Amino acid sequence: MSAIAIAATTNPATTSPATTSPATAASPLPRFLATDAPRVLAHLLTLDADDRMLRFGHGIRREGIVAYVAGIDFKRDHVHGLSASNGEVVALAHVALRAGELDFGLSVIPACRQRGLGRALFEHVMALAPQLGAQRIVCHSISPVVLHMVAVRGFRRPNGDPASAPRLDLGASHRA
């Protein structure tokens, strides 16, 4: 893929009206709908085995990715990203909140790396967490880039256990 013009917005027909809600107004990243699932799937399937390992924290085959995307609840979870002018999803964040604990996954296609897209996704996650009422953010990624970003933001492994996922407990002052 040669030069890619990143679209700041998606097609209005596939952009959720929720993108203008207070929970997402802090960021220009569009929120994807269930109708965008094929584009999300195509994006994740472009990741090679190493990138899938870094993104998911474990080896995952095509069938696992298909099941993962089929299991995304686009109304409950927040799936945001950036698309090329041709509609291809080039950077993706999946944010899920369960019982006050927010976890997230980030991915950027190889041709679009080192342009700040991953950092933009991560900063979006950080801004979204308190707006959603998260008490804690957990990072299951094993990507060195993502682990560096979370360490800089104060994420720590419980009891220093290297097998534990880094997490950041949010104080009441960080929650909306």
Automatic annotation (TrEMBL):
Top-rank taxon, per record: Bacteria
SUPFAM superfamilies reported for this sequence: Acyl-CoA N-acyltransferases (Nat)
Gene3D superfamilies per record: 3.40.630.30
Pfam families per record: Acetyltransf_1 (PF00583)
Gene Ontology terms, MF aspect: acyltransferase activity, transferring groups other than amino-acyl groups
Residues covered by the N-acetyltransferase domain: 31-176
Protein name: N-acetyltransferase domain-containing protein
InterPro entries recorded: Acyl_CoA_acyltransferase, GNAT_dom
